[in-house]
Amino acid sequence: MIIDINLDFGASLADAYCLNFGGFNTDNYGVFQLIMFHLATLINPLLMLNLLVSIMNETFSRLKENLITEDIKALAELVVEHESVFFWKKNRGHRKFLQSCSPETIEYLRIDKRSKRLEMLGDTVDQLYKSMKQAEKRRKKKIEDFENKISKQRKEEIVLFRTLMNNEANFRDKVS
After folding, report:
1. Which residues contact residue 150 at a Cβ distance below 8 angstroms, ignoring those fewer than 6 apart?
2. Is the distance from CB of 34 to CB of 55 less than 8 angstroms?
3. C-alpha–C-alpha distance, residues 97 and 120, integer Å
């Protein structure tokens, strides 16, 4: 079935179709033919699923592109249908107006989405700025505390050095 050179394209296509639905006969296959058969049974469903996923993805992307405009058109059709059903209410004196939607409103919706994203990004930047300022204050406080500790230790060293010098001078006075 797999390595038969005499098969034409139609027969090969029919064999692949039967292979997808489990219609195959492997009784007189050799080792190489069995290996090729098993590879084909593994690869063929993967290829078919990949094809199905790509078709569905393309369909979904086309549907998503036209979703907003189709939604607005359907809503306008419903309003027109509603008015045609209630034709007896037209002359009661209550005037109501039908507002038309244009593709520009879709652009405004896109701009609104973008502006919301920008606002969210701005809020995130503000939060990062505040946390940076707080971190900077903590860092400055730590540096100031560290400098105070160093200054205190230097003063203690000076006091100890003077005490040592006084003790040395007293010791020399006593020795001499």
Report:
1. none
2. no
3. 37
Residue by residue, DSSP assigns 57-99 as: HHHHHHHHHTHHHHHHHHHHHHHHHHHHHTGGGTTSS----PP
Residue length of the chain = 176
CB 69 within 8 A of CB 106: yes
Give the residue from 75, 71, 23, 70 showing the smallest Cα distance to 44. 23
Q: What are phi and psi of 97, to 5 degrees?
A: -115, 145
The pTM (predicted TM-score) of the whole model is 0.31
Non-local CB neighbours of 53 within 8 Å, separated by 6+ positions: none
CA 110 → CA 15, 68, 157, distances in Å? 51, 11, 69
Cα within 13 Å of Cα(52), Cβ side? 6
pLDDT in tens, 42-100: 888 888 899 999 999 888 888 888 887 888 888 888 888 877 777 666 666 666 666 66
Helix (H/G/I), strand (E/B), else coil: 126: helix
Whole-angstrom distance, CA of residue 176 vs CA of residue 164: 18
Contact between residue 106 and residue 75 where contact means Cβ atoms under 8 Å apart: no
